[in-house]
Amino acid sequence: MLIGSNWTFAQSGQTLEVINPATGRSFASVAAGGAEEVDAAVKAARAAFESPGWAKMRPIDRSKLLERVAQIIEEHAEELALLESLDNGKPKHLAMMVDIPSAVEVFRYMAGWCTKIYGKTLPVSGDGRQYHAYTLRQPIGVVGAIVPWNYPLAMASWKIASALAAGCTMVLKPSEVTSLTALRLGELMLEAGVPPGVLNIVTGDGQSAGEALITHPDVDKIAFTGSTPVGKHIMRTAANDMRRVSLELGGKSPTIIMPDADLERAIPDAAMAIFFNSGQTCFAGSRLLCHESIYDTVIAGIAEVAKALPIGHGQDPTTMIGPVVNKKQQDRIQSYIDIGQQEGAEAISAGSPLPSEGYFIEPTILSNATADSRVFNEEIFGPVLAATKFKDMDEAISLANKTRFGLGANIYSKDMNTCHKMAAGIHAGTIWLNTYFVVDAAMPFGGFKESGVGREVGDEGVLMYTESKSVCALL
Ligand code: NAD
């Protein structure tokens, strides 16, 4: 673990095995930190925050450091992609296309924000006297960041880059399932010249390290990405002392295909919206809502696309579908495929043959899933698409909104008027029109309803790491 400038093991001597999901075998171990390590890390983050070396550093100098971090990640792209592939199972070449560029771009984008966080002057007139009033935007302080295992480096980078741009310092707890790229990023950031204590990393599980971080009295904000149940627990805990939180949680996002859609684009997009990263994407298009006139064509097309996606080891450059992250997820996803069939959906297995070892799941379509079924409402977080038909736009919008989540939606129609009407009517944080999966450091990302609170990245994301203070002086 990284605490200040020290690399340490857990005081307890406990470790966590790192399992390669493609083989099911352990290939490394990381420290299992707990309350003691979290406390030391928070103290290091507080000291760095109070020192002249960070929050009070010239914004232009902080900007140069974040730009240098972007560069150093880029220089180590191959190594980081390999680590991500070994740890999470995802194809290395896809990590080179998605995960690593996302990390580089957010540091580069946020480097620009260091010099652009400012308040406003305010026209206060009041009682006839004259005032000079303005707002200050100040860093929130020490941030406890907790991230999941599906895009480990990218999710950590979104939080680190935004918080550091605002002048905060951080204790990061990676997922106990995938800690490796976060640890390597910590090393690279020190190498880039980020002062010790600005980023601290405590590895460990949610029950020990995670709980210690969310209850530590000297943490000013918790920035969490993960499941909705844990997000709710964090929000309840934070309410005790009104600690700031931002929560990026689960989803059950629809891909909606209207009768006039360009199917040559919509079908492959609908397939990749759910099968990319083996369905382990928070905004995966895990529900298909398709107009009844084209439903059979679309289902057959998605199955055909999926059959052509090679399933295999993440270091094989031809692999498009890697294993899911661990045995627990494999069993959970398989149980949902069974539940879907018990609920009356038709399971269409659409994958190529599975490797003999590792935690693989074949891409599966659960066709004619009903709107009140579990597979249509619960986040499966695997390569499983729950599909249903609709008659008209109103029914499509109503089905899209018939969920407690609200993270994303992909809409396909050649009529942009239809697209914009639907975008306005769907309750979700990001709507993609005739495209999918475009996530950019400039575009605020987050959820409606139980998909979260607050936004990450973009202008709204960086400001989530600041407090606004009004100052009013009598002239
Ligand atoms: P998870 O909620 O099980 O774990 C996420 C993190 O929380 C891990 O680091 C874990 O150790 C920690 N944690 C668990 N219990 C805790 C506790 N009591 N106190 C503090 N920390 C605790 O989620 P996961 O299985 O790692 O990731 C998958 C979930 O993440 C899915 O629901 C997915 O939709 C969501 N996700 C959301 C976004 C988004 O931006 N909205 C992005 C990626 C993933």
TrEMBL record:
Top-level division of the source organism's lineage: Bacteria
Domain (Aldehyde dehydrogenase): residue spans on this chain: 7-471
Originating organism: Zhongshania marina
GO terms, biological process: aldehyde metabolic process
Name assigned to this protein: Aldehyde dehydrogenase
Keyword 4Fe-4S on entry: no
Family of the protein in this entry: Belongs to the aldehyde dehydrogenase family.
Residues forming the catalytic site: E248, C282
GO molecular function: oxidoreductase activity, acting on the aldehyde or oxo group of donors, NAD or NADP as acceptor
Protein keywords: Oxidoreductase
